[in-house]
Amino acid sequence: MARPRIKDVARHAGVSEKTVSNVINDYAHVSDRTRRVVRDSIEQLGYRVNLAGRHLRKGRTGIIALVVPELDIPYFAELARHVIREAEERSLTVLIHQSGADRAHELAALAGFGSTFVDGIILSPLALTADDLRDRSGFPPTVLLGELLEEGADHVAIDNERAAREATRHLIGLGRRTVLAVGGVDAPGLGTAEARTRGYRAALAEAGIAYDASLVVPVDSFRMPAGARAVARLLHDGVRPDALLCLNDQLALGALRALHEHGVDVPGEVAVIGFDDVEGGRFSVPTLSTVAPDKAAVAKVAVELLQRRIEDATDADGVRADAESGAQSPQDRIVAHRLVLRESTEGHDRR
């Protein structure tokens, strides 16, 4: 049996093809009665909207790219799930690309992978610089996640500096005075690790605790083995912290393992807190206190911003518009975060 077409729906409903199109596109000026009749016909005939055709008529493909450093980092996997859900609600398909935190891969993504099949990009950059992002003429519409590298780009993040300050303040409030920043960066910069380290330092200053650069512990990756190695090395060298601020949950989970293997009680001797609120932290022993970004909100805002830029980039006839004409100013959107207290800091889950 042939697949029903829009003219079949129009004939069944006794209206014009234009009216069916108006109902499908949810135009406001269609009467409620006509809308019900058309939708009943669509359901009875089993008509399905040709989304590919609709997008192509508008000069679009209906495909957006989500570019993240590593998909097997739980935070990015969970974020991808939220982005896909938001995109589906807007009839968009998500192409997921792993950059490996490699500058060449991130630049290729920023340029649309050398093709026109991507309408826009949501990009979490780790290797790009502000100079890389400054001139994006000819590139697809882009929304950046994480710390802001370039003020001229749409951007979505939590307030990482504030979040780290709150987490460190909580540790200090427990009476902890020797707080390690695992994954911290003792240098100026625009990245997420730099922002979280600034928050850590600010909390120490508020409490009158002298900053000790040797307690900022760099890592070669933000995975569990790196957290375990860093903490094991310090314990072997005789460093005895009473708290760890780990810059993501993967580092914190690795740190918990190293502390366990060295017979260090958590949270009795060392309190531990992470970032990201990934699922594994709810099942570790002890359960992991963490900074929880609103990942659903990050995805929602990012997809909304990108869709707006995509619509700005083409006119009603599918013709590429002047990127400067009528476009809104770049948006810098900060979404909520909260401190979730669990067993690793003698706290509890307040949800």
Structure description:
It is a single chain. 40% of the residues lie in helices and 15% in strands. The N and C termini lie far apart (53 Å). It has a six-stranded parallel sheet with strand order 2-1-3-4-5-11, with helices on both faces. β3, α7 and β4 form a beta-alpha-beta unit.
Question: How many E-type strands?
Answer: 12
Strand content: 5-15%
How far is it from the N-terminal to the C-terminal residue, by CA? Answer: 53 Å
User: What pattern of helices and strands is seen along the backbone?
Assistant: HHHHEHEHEHEEHEHEHEHEEHEE
Topology:
Blueprint: H1 6-13, H2 17-24, H3 32-45, H4 51-57, E1 63-68, H5 74-89, E2 93-98, H6 103-110, E3 120-123, H7 130-134, E4 142-145, E5 154-157, H8 160-173, E6 179-182, H9 192-206, E7 216-217, H10 224-236, E8 243-246, H11 249-261, E9 271-275, E10 289-293, H12 295-313, E11 332-334, E12 337-340
Parallel strand pairs: 1-2, 1-3, 3-4, 4-5, 5-11, 6-7, 6-8, 8-9, 9-10
Antiparallel strand pairs: 10-12
